[in-house]
């Protein structure tokens, strides 16, 4: 009995499996896009940090959360402070504060940009948050008394 039929059958099964996987990935991408777009519109957004960029140091694991008119920042700060006294370096950018002002819009067809101004007892901050429909996010934090710092992250999608 000839085994020539086996290879074409195996190749056909692999192509069919690949198509199903592509369709599942496309469906998942659409679910993520929809969830991210809705989270930005509702101002209910959590970004889990995957890496950090400073002028001086490395990368930890923290988050930034937008809850309507409140910003919850649980981010490290590693960099130069220009005004003393500064809170403990262990405190970082850890606070929950009402948003003073916020602008939002679509900077690109697949990316929303939020600019959020907040003030704590220690400093004033401007958070620029770029959220792609894929769920990837980029956060840049500027303040009056510290070096800027930025973070990469992903939107926590249920």
Number of strands: 8
> Domains counted in the coordinates: how many?
1
Which residues form runs of ≥5 with pLDDT under 50? 55-59
Please report the first level of CATH classification, the CATH class: Mainly Beta
Structural class: alpha+beta
**Overall pLDDT level:** 80
How widely separated are the two ends? Answer: 53 Å
CATH topology term: Lipocalin
- C-alpha Rg, in Å? 22 Å
Sheet-strand content, in percent, reads: 35-45%
- Report the helical percentage: 10-25%
What's the main sheet like? 8 strands, antiparallel, barrel
**What's the shape?**
elongated
- The helix tally amounts to 1
Helix-strand topology string: HEEEEEEEE
- Strand arrangement within the widest β-sheet reads 1-2-3-4-5-6-7-8
User: Any guess at the CATH architecture?
Assistant: Beta Barrel
Condensed summary:
The protein contains one helix and eight strands, in the order αββββββββ.
